[in-house]
Write a structure and sequence with these properties.
The chain folds into 2 domains: 3-77, Glutaredoxin (3-Layer(aba) Sandwich); 89-213, Glutathione S-transferase Yfyf (Class Pi), Chain A, domain 2. The chain is 55% helix and 8% strand. It contains 8 helices and 4 strands. A hairpin with a 2-residue loop joins strand 3 (56-59) and strand 4. Residues 8, 11, 13, 40, 52-55, 66-67 line the site of glutathione (GSH). Glutathione (GSH) is lined by residues 8, 11, 13, 40, 52-55, 66-67.
Length: 214
């Protein structure tokens, strides 16, 4: 079996897939593409993902991109061992719903913060947009605080929903490191803060930290 994972350091979407591969204990060839060198836009890579984005996975010649599709592929292609989705159909549906919610709401909110804070800081409305994005994020964290009924989003063990949300939550810590004082200490409510600490303590999270964050 030849399995190749195309990754870009700092991409929350690629991090989800890396966590899923490690959770399943799979052997794979990690190809780290450099955004600076535009290695995600070369003809060879565009043949794998015509959108020129990471992540992508190539399994014995079969190429698949879009992080959530890749994670589902991994779950179904290697059903043995640690699971990514619950066996129960309704629990599985809930977990897929959570993943859509994370993409449609949480990831959006983080993007609303990242743009004025890191990339458009000189824009006249940057401060106003930052404040608005922080309020949006506060609302999102409150939503997940209520949704979290145990240690992990999807139930008794860490699974795909946790691996989808965590990289975007970790991004906020990264923003605070780059721009100290911009992410309020009380942004993350208590249950979610404990969840973040549990996630950070997982060996697979430590192993897959974006290399340039170290
Ligand atoms: N919906 C995609 C998003 C992937 C994505 O936006 N990747 C970014 C890195 S975070 C990328 O490769 N951007 C490069 C570009 O668009 O030029 C997924 O879930 O895989």
């Amino acid at each position: 079996m030849a399995l190749t994972f195309y990754y870009g350091s700092g991409s929350p979407f690629a991090w989800r897939v890396w966590l899923a591969l490690e959770h399943k204990g799979l052997s794979y060839d990690l190809k780290v593409l450099s955004f600076d060198k535009r290695e995600h836009k070369t003809p060879d890579y565009l043949a794998i993902n015509p959108r020129g984005e990471v992540p992508a996975l190539v399994d014995d010649g079969f190429a698949i991109f879009e992080s959530n599709a890749i994670v589902e592929y991994i779950a179904e292609r290697w059903p043995e061992g640690p699971t990514l989705f619950p066996a129960d159909i309704r629990q599985r549906a809930i977990q897929r719903r959570m993943i859509r919610e994370i993409d449609n709401h949480f990831v959006e909110a983080v993007e609303h913060l990242v743009l004025p804070l890191l990339y458009q800081a000189d824009a006249p409305d940057a401060a106003e947009r930052t404040a608005k994005a922080l309020e949006e994020l506060r609302g999102e964290f409150q939503y997940w605080e209520t949704a979290l009924s145990g240690d992990w989003l999807g139930g008794a063990v860490p699974s795909a929903a946790d691996f989808t949300l965590y990289p975007s939550v970790a991004m906020l810590g990264r923003i605070e490191t780059r721009k100290p004082g911009t992410v309020p200490a009380d942004l993350i409510p208590p249950k979610m803060a404990a969840w973040e600490r549990r996630m950070r303590a997982l060996p697979i999270v430590e192993k897959t930290l974006p290399p340039h964050w170290r």
